[in-house]
Amino acid sequence: MLAQPSEIGSKPRVLVGGIWHETNSFSPVPTDLDAFRRFLFVEGVEMVAALSGTNTEIGGMLAAADAAGIAPIPACWAGAVPSGMVLRQALDHVVDTLLAAAIPPPDGVLLALHGAMVAEGVDEADAYAVQRVRDAVGPDIPIVCTIDYHANVSAALVAAADVLIGYDTLPHIDMASRGREAAEVMGRLLAGMARPAKAFRKLPLLTVPQMQGTADAPMRELMALCHRLEAEPGMLTCSIVVGFPYCDTPHLGLSVLAYGAMEAAERAADTLAAAIWAQRAAFKPTLTSAGDAVGAAVRANRGPIFLVEPADNVGGGAPGDGTDLLRALIDGGAEDAACVIWDPAAAAAATRVGVGGRFHGQVGGHTLALHGQPVALEGTVTFAGEIRYLRDSSWMTGQPANLGLVATIRAGGVSVILTTERAMPFDTLHLRMAGVEPEHTKMITMKCGSAWATAFADMAIGHIYVDTPGICTSNLERMAYTRLPHSFYPLDPDTTWP
Question: Treating both helix axes as pointing N-terminal to C-terminal, what angle do 175-190 and 57-68 enclose, rounded to 10 degrees?
Answer without folding.
Answer: 30
